[in-house]
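Can you give me the bound-state structure? Components:
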Amino acid sequence: MTEIRIRVNGVAEALDVEPRVSLLDALRDHLGLTGPKKGCDQGACGACTVLADGVRINACLALAVQYADTEITTIEGIAKDGNTHPLQDAFVRHDGFQCGYCTSGQICSAVAMLREHAAGMPSAVTEPDDPGELDETEIRERMSGNLCRCGAYNGIVDAIKDVAAQGAS
Amino acid sequence: MSTKRVETAEKYVGRPIDRLDGAAKTTGEARFAAEHRFPGLAHAALVHAAIPRGRVIAVDDAAARAVPGVIDVLTHENAPAMKPARKPSMMDISSMVSGTSVNYLATDEVHWNGQPMAVVVAETPEAARYAASLVRLTYQELPARVDFAAEEPNAVPQKSSMIFEAKADKGDAIAALAAAPASVDLRFTTPPHSHNAIEPHATIAVWDGDRLTVHEGSQGLAWMRKHLSFRFGVPEQGIRMLSPFVGGGFGGKGSVWAGTLLAVLAARATGRPVRLALTREGVYHTVGGRTPSTQRVALGARADGAMTALVHTSVSRTGRVGGGPESITSASRHLYAAENIHLRQNIVELDLLPNTFMRAPGESIGTFGLESAVDELAWELGMDPIELRRRNEPERDPVSGVPFAHRMLREAYELGAERFGWSERVPEAGAMRDGRWLVGMGVATAYHPSMRMMAHVAVRLSADGGVVVRCGFHEMGMGAATAQAQIAADELGVPLEAVRVEYGDTDLPPGPIAGGSTQTASVAASLIDACAKLKRSVHALARRAPGSPLRGRRLEELTARDGGLHHAGGGETYAEILTRAGRDHLETETKAGTLGFMVRMLRDRRRYVKAASGAHFCEVRVDRDTGEVRVSRWLGVFDIGRVINAKTAASQLRGGIVMGIGLALTEETQIDHRTGRVVNASLADYHVPVHADVPHIDVHCLDDPDPTMPLGLVGVGEVGITGVGAAVANAVRHATGKRVLDLPITLDKLL
Amino acid sequence: MKPFAYVKLADVDAAVHAVAAGSGAKFLGGGTNLVDLMREGIEHPDTVVDVTGLPLDEVDELPGGGLRIGALVRNSALAADRRVRAGYPVLSQAILAGASAQLRNMATVGGNLLQRTRCRYFYDQAAACNKREPGAGCDALDGFTRSHAILGVSESCIAAHPSDMCVALAALDAVVEVRSVRGTRRIPLADFHLLPGDTPQVETALEADELITAVELPAAPFAARSRYRKVRDRASYAFALVSVAAALEVRDGAVAQVRLALGGVAAKPWRAHEAERLLLGGPATEEAFGRAADAELAAATVRPGNAFKVGLARATITATLRDLSTEEETA
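Here's the bound-state model for the whole set.
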């Protein structure tokens, strides 16, 4: 067992885990934060997406011990000061989910994606000389690491567009 | 059901209401099956067979037992007995939810590659999984038949059942085909598919003496409970199954599969609460998927397009230890006014994990064959494919001659053509281009039969004006609770916020299975009955009450609105009526007898042909160099009767189309032809559509009530996926001139 | 996953010594491949030395041009680097074409070089695999081979290398710098990955105790006109069926400079030397591109499931060079 300190959603946590325990299992089984989901445990679905120091990662392929002294944000910590994050509301408004199992990952991913875009991070569909307006093609490519088997993709894209437009205005 | 009806002031039905579970699902608060915590929870992992057929002749679990934290290794050598599964019978539908007939861990027999042969229980999931990898099984192999392509010529005719007919004949279609001035005769193949709900199946089982609590994502709680009761020899009433959130089902969580049984067994064997969360690979190895198929569709027509012959034959597979036939030719029975029709379905049994229901079983792949062939006939005739369909639109059901309960395919195509800009389609293949892309447009018909099942619903009206609807139905993302809350609010004339819906729990009155697009209509029918009974009870309280503005009023004069019953001259709230009567609450529960329900259902089926239907319009772009296909536009116009919730209904239809895009372009469960092993048992290798594969999907519902269904509504879960494969194939045909007969339409077929 | 000891070190020498000291020790970077392989029971180190704390996460300009990329630079950071985007667009595009944003945020450059094949028969312990268990045989040969190699294959193994980034690095003549207790050495990327031959379990020229410290890109002004084209079974988040990394300079209608590498077709990123040789000095026409592709692919060994890759690779090479040459004309 290895004892690590880790900050999760602003709270300092002490965890005593085997090195083989993934960050995802540490969050879900050890800290009871079951918002991040286990869809494949192989980095192939994105349901486990959380933010590590604000950067989106797949918690299933992360060993918890590797993330000691890191600030982790899960869906449970996306809301600020008791208010839901605008993306959470937009997902409901635009019906950006059905069963809800991929939703935590989609929202966390989208939160970080908007930041990445604002910071000038290109995507596979960004034209070389184009600063990259966040149109639907960009959103879809940037969100492709989050599978939704219910097929709520339209609603997710609409929710993100909505929030991106609010942010821009 | 000629009960006296109270007028209602409809307010919520039809509107795009946000999901009631939206907050729970967007904040991470919703707890799915694997996410419940119990003191002393142990964790189980499966050991899968590595051969397709044979026996386990030796188990070496020494290394596994030596892993720190391992509690037990269960195999056929030491596991407590479970009763074998009952033979499937229509008389007891719970017998039909047995995913397979295998009595896991009571037998050394291997029936498919991947069958669970041992269960490791440990203190941590890491230890369980690692120990499971150390269990060594020695086999004696037996010859196995696992190659569908090689075995399908040996298929035998499927037997018809009370619900599904396996064949149909009208006239002599074979002779008419030979004599037809224009004809097509095509052979299609479709591969196996997997549901791939993002939530892998997981079970938590907790025994307390003879009482059992099971947390499990389920589409069929009542039947599953009954099944568990039988297998474990304990009273049904002592079992509680909870399933408030289901992380996607699509048919894959409608039967009892190994994981559920083995979690319960492991909990019994170890005396610990046990969680068995399948790995993604474990889902592929233990939960059946959609059968592959081969199909022949042959159509004959006169020069004016009138069909003279429609031949549709199919082969699908089941497992030797379970599974069932699929109605692959079902839509061919109802869609075209062909003078002669010949439909046959055949089955081959293989040594594979049995198939199971997956979103529109039968129709999803059957419409690929039929609707591709109709399109090809249009090319053959030089006729617009919509016009060809219009000319063959039947007035009555073509085979049975029975009237359609509701049919709006002409309207769907007409409206769709206008909205989609069909007139801009250049008829010649390969004539539309956009830079490096060849552009094509295609259409296809969507069709899914509609049915109802039995549902028991309880409704409680409290003196504070609150309403609680209780029914053990299932919420896998359809928005079921939201739809029923809307209906209850309207039926009782209360604000939506006053309605709470309880579901996903066997402690509630039993709901229907969430399958066959039946749940909403089935629950709605009973809910409406329950609300009617409740209003009669309220009326009875007020009718004779001195001082009530409803005193002496007949029920027919009243409208349920504003939280009570009203007539033109006045009224009062439920709260007022109940308070005056000194009643804390009123509650009603509908109860329907199984036999009576079945008789009514079968009678109804003889009277009408009922279905959801629609017209898909698809635009694709095909890269002229590499053959990559991208779906660039989509419109679906649907006849689903009355729309209950415009937002969630559209989402479900879109979801079906998205899964259909996967079926069309990327999805295949690859089964090794030598070993019967699922090869691409991961989400990296089984390609479901990602964000970038899915364009904006325009969905339009005609919203015209089906007079034979409760509230005029028809289920929407499955119709969306039907026809999608053909719509894509037909658009690809238009873009490239190539007719792809074998799904999925991967780029190598277009190079 | 087998239990293991975990150490995280902040010093390169210490890390190198830690792995040299223990048998069965492995370096761990972003974890996107190694953690998966450990969970699947394919990799089972006794000790894991986490190197993500080492000061190897900078991209520096080399004197005389070129870039030195620290082995622990995250894939996403490298793809976004202005100097890479301007000077070596093919590299940025290749990285962005791979995996998902989440995985690119985790994955390191060094780890990407060491990605192992995604052959499903390699992953499935029930299947025979010479790479996983030397001498066991290869179930892929007569199995599903859609994702498998057609160039440089052997009867022992037909697995393909899954990386996109490495294909661009191959086209750019990158050099890999590695460190061990024995010192530092430099391995040209072309020699870094190995073809299977009779030893498919040996995948790279790296010794077990060697740590990748950097990748160097030589100055290549013409690489400013380069691109990566990836063809796969869905629009995103899938491994390549075939990919092409190409850089092209056309002068007076003739090919003055060309670099061409292929992904998804071999156990290593495949530098198309034969095609380059034929193209250099010749006309920059679609016909010439096709002929060069044919020459490169003449040695292909195909199976029923991957025979299409020959035509697909030809089409993708031709289209990519055509696009680059047209771009050049209009520039």
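A couple of observations. The mean pLDDT of chain C is 97. DSSP finds 13 helices and twelve strands in chain C.
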